[in-house]
Amino acid sequence: MSQDLSLFNKPVSSLFSADLKKKPASFQISSQQLDFFKTHGFLPGIKVLDDLQVDKLREELSDLTTPNSPGNELFHEYHSNESTDPNKILFHALGAWRIKPSFHDILWAPGFLIPASQILGGAVRFWHDQLFCKPAKHGGVVAWHQDYSYWTRTHPMQHLTCWIALDDATEENGCLHYIPQSHQWDLLPITGLAGDMDSVKSVLNPDQFKKFIPFPVPLKKGEATFHHPLTIHGSFENRSPNPRRAAVINVFLDGTYSVSNDPLLKGIGVVPINCKLEGQFFPLLHDGKSIQA
Question: 190 Cβ partners below 8 Å, 6+ apart?
Answer without folding.
Answer: 145, 149, 150
